[in-house]
Write a structure and sequence with these properties.
heterodimer; A: about 375 residues; 5-stranded antiparallel β-sheet; 6 helices; 25 strands; B: 3-stranded mixed β-sheet; 9 helices; elongated
């Protein structure tokens, strides 16, 4: 800290250096964008502050879509770096079908005439392509590298598992390959399955049993069956990818029949599970609904963040942040959408790494407005 | 006989005013804590970069935060009132909190500063922070054109 940083003249000297960067660590990301335009030195200080003092963190994005035509959609984002909800207004993107997401920030809409999908951080740009050959309800649709993989789903006409279809975003062509393993046939709809993706593979876990497979869209191969078995009975298995690790978030009960939520790291080759951390009971309580406790949870994992909520009651979301090795921070947030609005709307959550450069670009050119929800 | 917790320190501002503060309260400033632990035996601790105006405020804040009977809600109310100061004083307190290494005060003042900044246009920020605009004329034009909304 140099003397200049500490000089206070009659009007106060110009604040710069570390002190300015500490101030920036308290400023929400969306407000740092205009701050970066104040002067060149402030631009550098914003970048430096984001690097050294308080990095951007993955946003939890909530898409609220009315269940009736014209399916009006509103979007909200929770920024954990500043602990606040933001309402994102966008020019009307036509969401004329049910919005869905199987994982991370991949959003899609599927009808018999087209598949629409988006995977940029704020789902601003959309692609519209021909749908898969075989119609199915409620499949898994996920992006693995350059491939959009459509797996499972149900059909009124077919009793056998449906073939996997892969859309290549580079060649713009569909390809069909072997079906999903027969063991997953009865749970083929996406509500019974939890998925995670890396750049090379799609991992699928049956929520109830923990039966897990991976699928490689390049070789079109399925793995043999694996059971996620961390020496504890888990009633609801959810997986995700945290940086490069595969993790399992499971609902279980302890010896005294008390509900617990635990997180394990899963080896991607042999599927061995290593317990990482357990959710403090005070947050497990927040997830419980009045009548039935928790029967199932949904999980969104990106970077160092795990967002967890009760599938049937999304009023509270529990957040877990991995700070450093073996150091975890837990807290809970209230859903920005009120309980009564949940009835007339479907809520789709995605989790997205919104970087500062991306945000600058979006605020400059894309006609998006960001307002803080108090 | 006075036990260490009851020891009183004399803090001297840059304009030579002396303030009496209990040691247990003053060590919330890590700079002071380090001096004490290093066995500083001066009559008064000189704080060369903090004037009496700021030091009085800082002591007010320290005493509120050291008070074990004040609840979180009371502290929040106190903070809300405490930060209602002209912006130059907010900046002055940030500099002082940084010099004294007083994390709690730094947090409260930086939050207050961030809250004020949100409402200002780029021009207002430059004025309030006494910033020298280091853009060339062309650069300024370009930045304004691309981000006109920030300058309103």
């Amino acid at each position: 800290m140099t003397r200049e940083d500490q000089v206070m003249g009659e009007n106060g000297g110009e604040i710069h250096g570390d002190i300015l960067e500490v101030i920036f660590s308290h400023v929400p990301l969306i407000d740092l964008v205009p701050a970066s335009h104040v002067s060149k030195s402030w631009g550098y200080a914003v970048t430096s502050s984001l690097s050294h003092f308080n990095k951007p963190k993955p946003w939890l994005i909530l898409h609220k879509q009315a269940t009736r035509y014209p399916y009006t959609t509103s979007r909200y984002a929770y920024d954990p770096r500043s602990h606040m909800w933001i309402k994102i207004s966008q020019p009307s993107i036509k969401y004329n079908l049910a919005l869905k997401s199987s994982n991370s920030n991949f959003l899609y809409m599927l009808s018999s005439t087209k598949l629409s999908f988006s995977f940029d951080p704020l789902n601003i740009s959309w692609s519209h392509v021909d749908p898969p050959l075989i119609w199915r309800t409620d499949p898994i649709v996920a992006k693995v590298g350059d491939s959009i993989v459509v797996v499972g789903g149900g059909s009124d006409y077919e009793d056998d598992p449906l073939p996997v279809e892969i859309y290549n975003t580079v060649t713009h062509a569909w390809d069909t390959c072997d079906t999903m393993p027969g063991n997953l046939k009865d749970s083929a709809a996406s509500t019974w399955l939890s998925i995670a993706t890396t750049n090379e593979k799609l991992f699928i876990t049956e929520k109830q049993s923990g039966l897990t497979y991976w699928f490689d869209p390049n070789t079109k191969c399925w793995s043999r069956p694996n059971k996620l078995n961390p020496n504890q009975h888990i009633s609801d298995h959810n997986i995700g990818t945290s940086n490069d690790d595969l993790i399992l978030v499971g609902l279980c009960k302890n010896g005294e029949n008390v509900e617990q939520v635990k997180i394990w790291k899963v080896d991607k080759e042999n599927f061995q599970c290593e317990e990482i951390v357990e959710m403090p009971l005070v947050y497990v309580d927040k997830l419980k609904s009045e009548s039935i406790g928790i029967s199932s949870i949904n999980v969104h994992v990106t970077g160092n963040f795990v967002y967890i909520y009760n599938q049937s009651e999304t009023e509270e979301v529990v957040v877990c942040e991995l700070i450093a090795n073996n150091d975890y921070r837990w807290w809970s947030i209230q859903n920005v959408v009120a309980h009564d609005e949940m009835i007339m709307n479907r809520l789709v959550f995605t989790c997205s790494r919104v970087g500062f450069d991306e945000l600058q670009r979006i605020m400059r050119s894309e006609n998006q407005r960001f307002e803080v929800e108090s | 006989m006075s036990s260490p917790e009851e020891k009183t320190l004399i803090l001297k501002s840059s304009d030579n005013e002396e303030f009496l503060v209990k040691e247990s309260v003053a060590v919330q400033c890590i700079t002071i804590k380090n001096l004490v632990e290093d066995g500083c035996d001066l009559d008064a601790i000189p704080l060369l970069n903090v004037d009496s105006k700021n030091l009085a405020w800082i002591i007010e804040f320290m005493e509120k935060y050291a008070d074990s009977t004040s609840t979180d809600a009371e502290k929040k109310d106190f903070d809300t009132e405490f930060v209602k100061k002209p912006f130059n004083d907010v900046l002055g307190l940030i500099l002082a909190a940084n010099y004294l290494n007083f994390p709690a005060l730094m947090d409260v003042m930086c939050d207050a500063c961030a809250n004020e900044m949100k409402l200002w246009s780029v021009e207002q920020v430059r004025e309030k922070f006494h910033i020298q605009n280091d853009y060339t004329e062309e650069e300024e034009k370009a930045v304004r054109a691309e981000n006109f909304w920030a300058f309103e």
